[in-house]
Structures are given as structure tokens and as C-alpha cells.
Predict the structure.
Amino acid sequence: DRGCAWSGAIVVGLTAGAIVDGPLADAMVPARGPAAPARHSCLPHRGAWPVIALIQRVASAHVEVDGEIVGAIGPGLLALVAVQPGDGEPQLERLLERVLAYRIFADADGRMNRSLRDTAGGLLLVSQFTLAADTRSGLRPGFSTAAPPDQAEIWFERLVQRARQVYRGVETGRFGAHMRVQLINDGPVTFWLEAR
């Protein structure tokens, strides 16, 4: 346990039939107390921060906003994405390639040897700034390590655009909205990906 933002909270959304409630825009309030160095608890102490994706192999997943389903997939990947300060086109391109090429689907022998591209499964991209939280101390996460909402929206929407240009079957949530994400994790299989 490296004190990552998802190690204590988001795990509730990784089991079959789970519902992840959020993210909430008003949660982006700096944590109280002495200022901590601007480093993410999950990252090496060096240079630029990566864009983050928590990917889950799912039998199905969908996103609701105000009771309306705005994005849904069958078998494939749900990717919760967090943009951090300094992220841009190069990081997004590398992350997208990793998500599409990461081999977490079973081959004929039952080994994780096939990618999303190989299976032609669905891809559901959902913005989740809380993955970039600083959780090293205290009882409240700090969000100075997440990109400001206006910048994060630009780059998240760019990621969705690029994904749709190179891959079919891409769905998404609604940036900044209060979303309910329902999924059936197939395995369960979950991985934390980063791209610099």
C-alpha cells in the first residue's frame, strides 16, 4: 500500500455489481493543515507527473447522470482517468496506446495475453480527478496534485476525441457532473496505469 488515492476508497467499486458514486466537483477544496510538497504519493519523486488511468476489465459498465444513462459498454474496459498539472498531448497519446494495447484479456489458454484491440471490446472513459489526490497524511485528501478543472476538461475531452479517432466503441461519462458508475468487474481485474 503506497497510500494511493484508490487504495482505501475506490476499491468498493471494483467488485461485481458495484456502484461508484461521484466524482463531485465541490470536493476540490485544498486539504487543511500545513502545505505539503507538491508531489503525488504514488509517484517517484522526480519531474513531471503522469496522466493516470485506473483500468478495469468489465463484463459491462454504464454511467448515469441525473437518472439518464449517458455511456454504456458490454465486455471491455472501464478507464477512470485523472489529469495532473503539466499533462498534455504526449502523455495522453501514450496513455491511450497503453490502454488499447495492454494485455489483460484471456487467450485460448486462459492467459492474459490479449488486448482491448484484440478483443474489439468496448471502452468507457470516465474522468476521475480523485485519483490524483494527495493522501499521504491526515483524514482528508488534498487536490493540489490534480489539474485545475478547466485544464483537465480540455485534456480529458481531447483523450476521448483521440480514442474515437483510432478505436470504435468508445463511450464516456460527463465531465464535472455527479456520475453514478455501475460495473461488473470481470475477474476481478484492475490495473493502475501511468503515462509520462
